[in-house]
Amino acid sequence: MKFADWLLARALKNDAERDMVLGDLQEELPRRGRVWYARQALSIAAHALVRPRGLPGEPHRSGDFFMRILLRDVKYAWRSLMKRPLLTLTVAGTLGLGLGANAAIFNLIDRLVLRPYPLDDPDRVLLFAETGPGAQYKKDEVAPANFYDWRAAATTTEFISAYSYWDANLVDRNDPERLQGYQITAGLFEALSVKPALGRSFVRDDETFGRNNVVIISDVLWKRRFDRDPAVIGRRVIVDGGPSEIVGVMPPRFNFPEGSDIWAPLSFDPKTPPSRTVRYVTAIARLKAGRTIADAQAEMSLIAARLARGYPEDRGFGVRAYTLTRGMLDEGTGPMLSLWQASAFIVLLIACANIANLLLARAAERRRETAVRLALGAGRGDILRELLTESTLLALAAVPGAIAFAWLSLYAIRVSMPANILRFVPGFESLGPDLRLVSFTIALALLTALIFGLLPALRAGAGAVAETLKEGGRTSSGRQLLRRSIVIAEIAIALPLLVTAGLGVLGTRQFLSGPQGYDPDGLLTMKLVLQSRAYPDPASLRLFVDKTIAAVQPIAGVENVSIINNMPSSGGNASRRIDIDGHPAPDPKNLPVVDLRAVTPGYFSMVKIPIMRGRDFTTADREDTAPVAIVSESMARKFWPNDDPIGRRFRTPAEGPMTVVGICGDIIHDWFNRRNTPTMYRPYRQLPTGNFAIMMRTPGDPSSLAAPVRRALLGVDPTQPVFEVMTMRRALHERTIGLQYLVAVMTVFAGIALVLASVGLYALISYLVAQRRHEIGLRIALGASRAQVLQLTIGQAFRLTIAGTAIGLVLAIALSRLIQAGLIGVGSSDARVFVAFAGVLIATALLAGYVPARRAAAIDPMAALRTE
Asked: Which of 801, 110, 157, 847 is nearest to 434 (CA)?
């Protein structure tokens, strides 16, 4: 009570007015209670704060007219909302969910698509991509030799630079670590307007082969490995088997591109000069002052045309200029966020329909009041303006809750992303409320106020005044039809969202828990990359693998261990073009492509890929024996559809001829684009590689083997790091993290839509029961049973639900292909999925209608007839 009295004392400046109000409130306190006292005090204080102020007797200036009208409308709307606190809280909560969902998705789009890089003027940083035969992506599509020609000739841009993906083995004080890094040319940091926090950037001389043994490290690596030691500049470490000097440390939170921890100069051995045929670097530059992207595009097109005339390798190739943000955007991010935004908009639309229905019912209750005001001279425009003001206050009241909901959603999204994946998503760490999100939420709230408030406001001011007064405030059937139509629309648009989420959940479960073609349980995996300085030839690679298997196999709990160049769900791939003996390709210059896996003996039995026919690899399949291969069932069906592949021969341009000795089962290598792909397996000793994974099976917990296996590998080579040590189940989880996020957010949206649609149906049935109270009481008085009243009321809910579900099924079926495309093809068009979720919607809606139906069946007929 003290706080309420203090608030009134601050708001009411006139002593007589303050004493009168406090006296009246304190007289009513014993009868009304503390909650009433606090609510009245808050309402009076708010009213006093928003009323026009001025000196007593001072006339208002003409320019104050609009403000006086606005303040009067705000005051009236506030009093009206305070009279119905439950309705106000319901509307604010409902709208807060819809606004919060849209605000969260807006922040994702803003941070991941529009502003992923915290750079100064990022739109002046350009990305150049070559276009032509075989070019598929914006990044990694530039031939190094062409880049150097661009750098020498370009005049519209400055600091034109290139980078190429590079993983590095770092050894410092006998502690090896695998780092994500890039090899870059001088000028990359300058193009981004970023300077090292310590030391220097790269210069052109660092690109010279033999003088390129320098590196720059990230702030994260500096803190983690070097304890923030400023003397790290000039320190020598072992990188990829050779000594390198640390010359710089980048500022905090800078890890461009894609989570880099270390950068080295991009240089070429004079024996292997830059290529014009292999395109693998990314080129960026900064526009010079006064230049536009159109100027850069025109100049680069001229340079590309000149190179095409001078070099046969460049014929048919051009150059396209993009802003850095657009050029670096992942191809899957836009469609995923668009699907989320569409779903959030549907949720908001359902919320607006719900609120419009509540306000229509509220307007119906106030029809007599509105008619009286119109009869006494109020204009219809005044009524419309006041009701829209009320809607605006409701919408603004929902903004704090919406921002809180968005913050919680973004926090949950951010903390649930694995750290080793989070670093590869630009802008993800900066998710969270900011001024742009608040402004967007307020603007969207004002727009929704117009959407859900306009129809009730128009209906309130419509109709003949005399007829309304004679009706005594009863609701016409036309208005009931409008409210029923809104509920049907809510149910109809909620069902496609439910189906989308359902398809996604089933698809995700299929990829995580369904058949993979192998058994992922009980498998521990880890990756290694052997550097050419330490392992320069195939013999040294084979020796390391032999020692590794010999060191790991005796560890307690290890049933079997094997090596593969690309394990399932690794994200990488290797492939070869093949020529089948006896089945020449239609186009010899465009041979078919199959995936390639190099494995050690025992791999198939360890991961439990069945050998369907023929034999497995053995220790007899060595480098000095006849080349052999095992092919997958899909490869056998594709290239030998009517023949027995066992004993058949095929060849690759790199390895020559080989003989098929077995056929194995198909597997899902990658949920995104490599499912049951034609694959050939080769013995590792016949095709050694320095980039491979170690896989081992155990009957116990696979993660318990990580520490002893690491120690065993350090015994083989103390300078060789292992990385991405995880169970196979964990690898599957991380590889499908994008799909899981997509489905999780869609499921949340579907759940909110289901709740809102059910609440809308509940509100409508409750309102209709209240409107038909006299009729229901009369029916009961005339002998209607409780079951008949329940049937009457639930029948209304059932008919509305069936109508909405039928329309929703048509929409869901029509959009099923679009839904499947949005879910990367993992959905299913099985009719049982649609029927199941239609059943869920119907059951939930009927449950929402059952509560007011029970209330209707319990009506006392005498009380109902007497109140009429």
From this structure: 110
